Structures are given as structure tokens and as C-alpha cells.
Amino acid sequence: MSQFRLAFFLSIIRICQCVLMTNMTDMRNFLKSYNTHAANANNEAVTIAWNYYTNITKENQAKMTESDLDMANFTKVWAAKANQFDWKRSDLNATEKRQFEKITQLGFSSVNDTAKIELKSNLEAELTGIYSTGKVCLTEFGKGCLELEPGLTDMMANSRNPNELLAAWKGWRDQTGKKMRTKYTEFVNVMNEMIKFSGFNDTGEYWRSWYEASTFESDVKKLYNELLPLYEQLHAYVRHKLKNKYGTALFPDTGHIPAHLLGNMWSQSWSNIYDLLTPYPNAISVDITQKMKDKGYNVTHMYRVAEEFFTSIGLDKMPTSFWNKSMLEKPANRDVVCHASAWDFYDGEDVRIKQCTSVTADQFLTVHHEMGHLIYFLAYAIQPVIFRRGGNPGFHEGMADIVSLSFQTPEHMHAIGLLDSIPNDKESDINFLMQMALEKIAFLPFGYLIDQWRWSVFRRETTPNNYNANWWDLRCGYQGISPPVQRTEQDFDPGAKYHIPGNTPYIRYFVSFVVQFQWHKALCDEIGYKGQLHRCDIYKNKTAGAKLRNMLALGSSKQWQDAMQVMTGGRNMSALPIIQYFTPLIDWLKEQNKEENIGWSAQCPSNIPSPDQTNNQARLSVSTETVCLIIVTLTNFLLMSM
Ligand SMILES: [Zn+2]
After folding, report:
1. Are the beta carbons of 448 and 509 closer than 8 angstroms?
2. Is there a catalytic annotation at residue 186?
3. What is the pLDDT of residues 90-141, one digit of tens each?
4. What residue spans of 198-286 are helical by DSSP H?
5. Suppose 175 and one of 134, 308, 526, 604 were both cysteines; which one would form an S-S bond, judging by CB atoms 3.0 to 4.6 Å apart?
6. What is the pLDDT of residues 224-274, one digit of tens each?
7. Dist. CA 336 → ligand 1 center (Å)
8. CB atoms < 10 A from the CB of 621, how many?
9. Which of 44, 240, 499, 625 is catalytic?
10. CA-CA distances (angstroms) from residue 403 to 344, 364, 398, 437, 579?
11. Domain definitions of the chain by residue range
């Protein structure tokens, strides 16, 4: 629809608002009609986005921008139609009213200015493009030029050379975040301007509204504080072990851990350095990467095994189209967005995964995660299109992960032939819990802080001239990690994490890490499991699958608190199950950490230790950088003034 016709149409509707239609049959017919049209419109939009994400070209980007405009128009037109009805005061049932309510929520589509919609869409594509095509040349280490996946990711995971790790860590930030700073500032501004038309103060407030709880911000803060003692114990243990490995010279005296030593580009999961942290090296540790290779696993087989888990508990098989249309491996001949993702094409059948899969234990988990999303899509396909979402965004991620809690147990590894015997000694058990903690506990502050930063940016409490400083305040303060090399406002380290350029809200992952343990406990209780929570495997248990499906099938047709009640009997998020799960490990860590100072200072260290320099030289290099920054800033100012 052209802009003119749309404006005309909207003005007619505005004039007509005084006489709202009250006929119930018309309202129900409207909902039916919306459903058909929305399924088609979404299918078209998702197809165009898929084409771009699996083939980054200027042409595909232009099509996506056009499609964003169409989608915004679609949302606006149908919201206007819905508002012609007096649905609020009608006798429609609660579910029907909820459909109307959601159809009339415009989000970013409320803006009429096409230029703004186009700008937002273009900036998003450009930012994602910078991220997805970033390459770091590490010729001095004989590595050539590496992309994030698999090259840099493997290097961060496997290298134990701190200089090499530092080069990869810094190189990635130079090649991505640093190039985004100006565009990101513009992006924040345009989003905030657009969302005001929907009555929100800023984009962060809009994102939080999806959780349908006025206390959401304080609820997650409370959960974070309840979980902090677990993280502090893990942090102290890991710091001690890493000091043994790398020597104390690399570590600041503020208690922080240098960010490049944790086996991951963002220090968000520490699983890859388990070899340096193994509590009992002589006891059994589950390490299936080698076993997968020995057993001749290939990419397709990984997806088949994941599918078998879901069907074993009575959930859906992947449709034939999944196998034909997904992108399960990285194509050689074109640029793609490798970051793994799950796609719903809104026709009740076409669901796909896009992942540059390789045969490793890590990727095997991601395969289960993405397929978990698809299972959710298929379960709520019985709902009207407007309800085909998770109970809240954290629910979708929680569902994607819940299987991992069963899948990773030694019991399950043994059941699928990836572990020769089931260990039952205390030492192997602590080893297993340590592996889980490096994934699940290590992540918590990271999952919490990303949107603390972004909400603050949207509120304009964090402004472009302190983007990076505030980012590091949070990283140092919450995660207890420190930058391995001096950072300045020339850098833009948030941009080196996919979800910032990709504009994906992040608090959902924190929520997910809490609720998945609640659900795991609920399912294990349901099947009458009596052992320790961390050894429960719901594999092949159709009772567990049926209970899970009951919640999944709701989609967002009810508030998430209702869905939570279906699953757990309670209506709130709770940290107790995750605490219960890890209690044996936490008790053990407290013993190990008796000599350690638990925690770290709230501020980042002012000096960055370097192994090649004495302390004096380190201080000198910091002050040189500060001087450079001032000169650069002044130059910019002068250039702008002229
Ligand atoms: Zn996910």
C-alpha cells in the first residue's frame, strides 16, 4: 500500500473512531481474517530475512529493508482495523480480547515516517554486516586471517598462549565493535524516536513490556543477587587455577580475571578451559567431542540424535522440509550470518535452523538448543498467529535449553553410547557439576549485564562519550573480569557481541537460565524421580513430554505466569532450583576456596598488567594511551567545529 493511501485510510479510521462496531460475529470474523493474512505476511517477511541471513548481499539487504516497510504497514493497517471494534467492552472471551490487544500493539510500526523505518532497517543490516564479515589477521602467529566461526572461536577455546589469545581478543574488537560506534549511536536514536509513537519512554521500556510484569526489573535484580554467591565461589576457584597456569603477573591486584583467559571471546561460558580447572583429573570427566569423532558423527547425525531425544518424550519429529531447507553447514561460496538461529515460517510446518555446525560437543549442545526452539514453534502452531511466541522471550530460550540438562547427564551420555559407563563416585560427580557450572553459573552475570548496559543507553544515562567506559564498569563490576589491554572511547566493545549489532534483547537468556532449572525440577518431580536433581534425565519419558507440551502449546495466549503455573504450580521465577542443583558443588568450592579472597573490587583495575613489561612500563603505556585519547578527541572536536 502506498504511503498516501495508507495515510488516507488511517485518517478515515480516525474519523470513524466515534462509532465503534459492536457486532460479535464481525469481531470473530475479523480475528479469523487477521490470522490468515498475518500468516502470509509473516511467511513472506521471514523468507526474505532468511534469504539475507543465508546470503549477505546488497540486493538481499535492500529486499529486507523493503520487507520491513511492508511489515510495518501491515501491522499498522490491521491495528487500525481492529480499533474500529469496541472489543474492550464486548462480551468476547479473555483469549479473544487478548488477540485484539496484541494486534493493536504497534511497537516500532507506530511511526508513519517511512524514512525512519528505512533508516532503522538499513542500520541494523549494516551493523550485522560488519559483525558477520569481520576477519582478524593473525599472521604473526602463523594463523592467517580468521573469521569468528570457526577460526577465532576455536582459538579462544583451545589456545593456551596468552599473547595469541590477546591478539584474537583485541583483533575481533578492532574489526567489529570499533567500526560500529557511529552507526550504533544513530541506531539508538532512531529506535528511541520511533518507539515514542507507541507511548514508551524508550526502547528498553518497550522491550521490558514483553514480560507483562511491572516489577520485572527488580525481579531479575533480586534473582541476580540470590545467585551471586554461587558465581563468587566459582570465580574465586577459577582465578586461583588460572593464576597457577599463567602466573600471577597477568592478574591485576583488584581480584579481576583478565577477560582473554576464559576460553571464550566474551568470557560468557568457561567450559572450554575445563582442562585447566578439572577438580579431580583422575576421576571421570565427560568429554564427548573425541567420542563423537570416533563414532563417525557427522553434522546430519547430530541433528538426528537431537530429534530422537524430542520424539522419545513424545514431542514432534522434524518435518521433511526441515531437512531440505535448513542451512546446517557453512556454505563455501558466500557470506552468511553464522550465529546459530531457529526460524519459524508461520505455516505450521516450515521450521528451519541456520547454523555453521561442526562436529564438537559444544555444537552438539547448540543443535539441541536450536531444535528446542523449533519444537516450541511446532507445539504452539495450533494457536492463532498473534500468539505464536514464547510465554515471554526468556521462555523460548529456557525451552531451548531444558533438554541440555538431561542430555548432558552421564546417564544420558551412556544411554546414547557416548560414555562407556555411568560413574557413581563423588569425585566424578563433582567433575560433572563443575562442567555444568562453567556453562550455567559462569554465564549468569553476563546474561544479566548486557541489557543493564543497553537499558541505560536507551535511557540516555549512558551516552556515546561513555559507551565503552560504562560497558567495562559493568563487566568488571558484575563479572569480575578485566580488559587485558587498555580500552578507550575509541573502542566500542559492546559491538563485538552479536546481540548488540543484531539488536536482540539479552535479558531473556538470564531469565532462561533461571526458569530452565525450575522446569527441569518440575519435570523430574512429575516423573517421580528421587535422586539428585543434576543427575535426572527425562529421556524416553512421555509423561515429562506431555507436561512440557501443555506449557509449550499455550504460546503467548496466556500471560507467562499462567504458563509457569501449568509447569511448576507456582507463578514466579525462582532461583531455588538452580541453587539446589549446584549445592554439592558449592559446598565443595567453599572448602577449596578457604584461603581465597572471595570477590573483586567494583571498579576496573587502573593498570593492565602485561607479562612482557615491568610494572613501571605498564603504567607508562597506560598514560601514553590516555594522552593519545585526548589528542584524538580534541582533533575531532576541532574538525567538527570547522
Ligand atoms: Zn536460542
Report:
1. no
2. no
3. 999 999 999 999 999 888 888 888 888 889 988 998 898 899 889 999 988 8
4. 203-209, 216-246, 274-277
5. 134
6. 999 999 999 999 999 999 999 999 999 999 999 999 999 999 999 999 999
7. 18
8. 15
9. 499
10. 20, 12, 9, 16, 19
11. 3-114, 616-642
